[in-house]
Task: structure prediction
Amino acid sequence: MPRFTRLAIIACAAFSFAAHAQLHSGDIILHTDEGRILTGIGNPGAGTFEERQIFTAILGTSFPNFTSDPGFDCLPGTFPVPSANGFNVLDALWHWDGETFVPTAGENMRISLGPANVTTSDGFVAGFTLNVASNGSWHRHYSFFLQQGAAPAIADGVYLLQLEIYNTGGALEPTEPIYMLFNQNASASDVDDAAAWVQANFIDEPGIPGDLNGDGVVDFADLSIVLSQFGMEGDDLDGDANGDGVVDFTDLSIVLSNFGTGL
Result:
């Protein structure tokens, strides 16, 4: 067989493999479009990619309070070479109380891979980067470990972790916020209700939690709204940050935990 023909066959086979590469089932799929990193499910190479921002995980299936699923995966050629992908924690860890997300009772989330690790705090926490493979792919499974805080025990329920993924190549915008719901001995209905709340409050009506006057920044004006209505109950209260019908310490905490942030 002539050398040119052999090379052509190899090239076609390589292209076919890349176009139909198998992605790991259950992972969060990364894709790029118009200069932005997208998250979702499905295979972009097969035309089945569906953009999503909410993902669920179950803690404790292998070790207590721990999971390494879902991971992140993508097709070869998704990211520039050389470069690295990293993550940032966008907010504190929150806990579902059956109606809304509230501050945890001291629990936090440790995120690690090998020796690299970070732990959630009261707000934004910079993560760490991991190199993209030589073929432009990136398949990683972080370890997520729910840690006990000052509370005497870890509370069961649904925990919300907000992340973004970015690339160091300089040509891609980071992902939209990724909302990861961790099931710590919670019911399926609780997880569904928490996911619906995130969809309604963070995605369908995008904005900054605590931005009560809608000016794109959480500042003294928003704090003043909460304090002026503190203790009031009713519908459509401007100071009711979590929409539960009462202006209380939960609403104050939402404003204070996001104080100073802006679009």
Summary: Residues 3-19 form the longest helix (17 residues). The helical segments are 3-19, 188-203, 220-229, 249-257. Residues 4-20 have pLDDT under 50 and may be disordered.
